[in-house]
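Fold Annotation — chain and its backbone
Encoding — discrete vocabulary of local shapes
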Amino acid sequence: MEDIKKRIKIIKFWDYLFGIVGLLSTFVGVLLLVILFIDLFIDGAARLNYKFITSFPSRFPKEAGILSALVGTTLVMFVTAFVAVPLGVMAGIYLEEYAKKNWLTNIIEINIANLAGVPSIIYGLLALGLFVYFFKFGESIITGGLALALLILPIVITATRESIRAIPNSIREASYALGATKWQTVKNHIIPYSLGGTLTGIIIGLSRAIGETAPVITVGALTFITFLPSSPIVKRFPFISFKWLFDPFTVMPIQVFNWVSRPQKEFHINAAAAGVILLIMTLLMNAIAIYIRYRFRRKIKW
């Protein structure tokens, strides 16, 4: 009896120790992010104002701003999300719920896992040959968005599949027992219950895409641009224009890199200020996705 009590105490001690180590590991990541944000904020505080956000880049550091990079990043991320999210989610659902388990699906699964670890510059070279030269999209917003969509597609697919696998088979069996079809089961049960994990994968993918530089440089993103893409809203019918998809662009990481590479200290201050705004954009995007995930989870009743 004493041996059993002693063993239970040892097990509880290791459980407690593991919890402490896990908590400290979590704090290390959060602390590094906070330190990075504070350091950038201190360096770039002098340039964090309305004029900096609404001004175009300039060869004079005190007049330079991030307007073109901010708009370009927003439009490129919109294209990336519009392409990667539906394709990734549908591919994940198909592979888990519809695809037969044979040698072909095994090859597809292995390739998806491998693609998630491919360096981002390779996706840039792929987009350069496919979208710029073959489809003749040119060095445009749609090319940059599609390049980043290819980059995060394996992440979204993998996250969708893992979240679907976590759903107990009893839910599927109960749905089939009540006469539901395969699609009704997927639509009414599989997709809602797996939405939390799927959104987590989407958050991770988009967070990686917004900070990528290599793919967009490869497909021709500009380092210095003093104009905005065409407006998506026009005065004439049908009041929507897609001309902006084929306009030149730049993004925030490239603008930051351009300023950091310059010798003047004032440009480094601009880079720090732009870094703060980029971090805020990333955190805001993640917060919106987390809120949506929370709202959906509240509606789900197991």
Q: What stands out?
A: Residues 48-299 form a domain with the MetI-like fold fold (CATH 1.10.3720.10). The longest helix spans residues 2-44.
